[in-house]
Design a protein that fits this description.
Blueprint lengths: L1 H17 L23 E3 L4 H12 L3 H7 L6 H10 L4 E4 L4 H10 L3 E16 L6 E2 L1 H9 L16 E2 L1 E2 L4 H9 L14 E2 L2 H9 L7 E6 H7 L7 E3 L1 E2 L6 H6 L5 E9 L7 H9 L2 H9 L3 E2 L1
Helix pairs in contact: 2-3, 4-5
Length: about 300
């Protein structure tokens, strides 16, 4: 009961800040009030869906189910940036822009404004039946160059490594390309080893035939907070002896950490709903809400 009361008090405090979440140049509060009619069109990366729901529910004072129906967190990360550029979305919560998204924005002559609001990690997963527990940064690179091909080279069984990859325009593939940084040394994955969704990759590693030999990667928050049931049959691998956790992501001790962002068009007016919402999300009240959704907050 005490926890419920405490949560209700925090939620009330957050709600009390929403009507004044924008600020003028002299730092005076605006009296902006969000309604379902003026609420910005929001989209973003799938792993940011819980945050999008929480923000929408809090700002509008509605339940999570209704909030979820008002926002669109699907498609690739590149798709979401392109939708923001085109005006389909007013604001997105998303992972790093890939090269295709950057090129699209440049082609359309649209500048984006973005602020890092939290950190997540690229994590590697294998079957729970696999005896390997840890990979080094160098071993991961050699696997995805195609130079290490069997689990016994890593202390496991004499079975071939089935190394899955994501599609090029996905957020997790953008993170892989940035953090693992293999460039043109990345091996070309067979067509059936390229997976078009994060859930599809988790299922390939956890559920399908030969899953004992599979290796894949995803983002930490999505796996542990949104698809935790997959950890009944698969497991997170530590890297360089460091397991991915909220604590090691926050400290940077885990090696593959990267930010996620709230993003609007740079030309959004100061009194526009998307600008006001953007300012609130990056405020202390917005950050507290993200913490309550178990994100690692900047």
């Amino acid at each position: 009961m005490k926890k419920l009361i405490a949560f209700a008090l925090v939620l009330a405090a957050l709600l009390s800040c929403v009507s004044g979440c924008g600020t003028t140049e002299d730092n005076q509060e605006n009296s902006f009030v969000f309604t379902e009619e003026n609420y910005p069109k929001m989209g973003g990366s799938l792993a940011n869906l819980p945050l999008g729901e929480a923000v929408t529910a809090t700002v509008l004072g509605i339940d999570r189910e209704k909030a979820s129906s008002m926002i669109v967190f699907e498609g690739s990360t590149t798709d979401n940036y392109e939708a923001l550029v085109d005006g389909t979305f007013d604001i997105i919560l998303a992972y790093e822009m890939g090269d295709d998204a950057i090129a699209y924005a440049n082609e359309k002559g649209v500048e984006l404004e973005m602020t890092a609001i939290g950190a997540d990690a690229l994590v590697f997963i294998c079957s729970l039946e696999n005896t390997v527990e840890d990979l080094s940064d160098e071993q991961i690179k050699e696997i995805y160059k195609g130079n290490i091909t069997s689990w016994d080279e890593l202390g496991g069984d004499n079975h071939p490594i089935i190394a899955y990859q994501r599609n090029k325009d996905s957020g997790s593939q953008t993170l892989f390309d940035k953090l693992i940084n293999l460039g043109d040394q990345l091996m070309e994955a067979p067509k059936d080893h390229q997976v078009g969704s994060m859930l599809g990759l988790l299922e390939a590693v956890a559920d399908y035939d030969n899953s004992k030999d599979a290796l894949g990667y995803t983002v930490y928050y999505y796996l542990t907070n949104m698809e935790g049931g997959k950890l009944d049959t698969s497991k997170l691998l530590s890297v360089n002896g460091v397991a991915p956790t909220n604590e090691t992501i926050a400290s940077g001790e885990y090696p593959y950490v990267n930010d996620f962002y709230v993003v609007i068009r740079k030309d959004a007016a100061e009194d526009s709903p998307e600008r006001v919402l953007y300012n609130w999300i990056i405020s202390e009240q917005g950050k507290e809400l993200a913490r309550r959704e178990n994100y690692v907050v900047k």
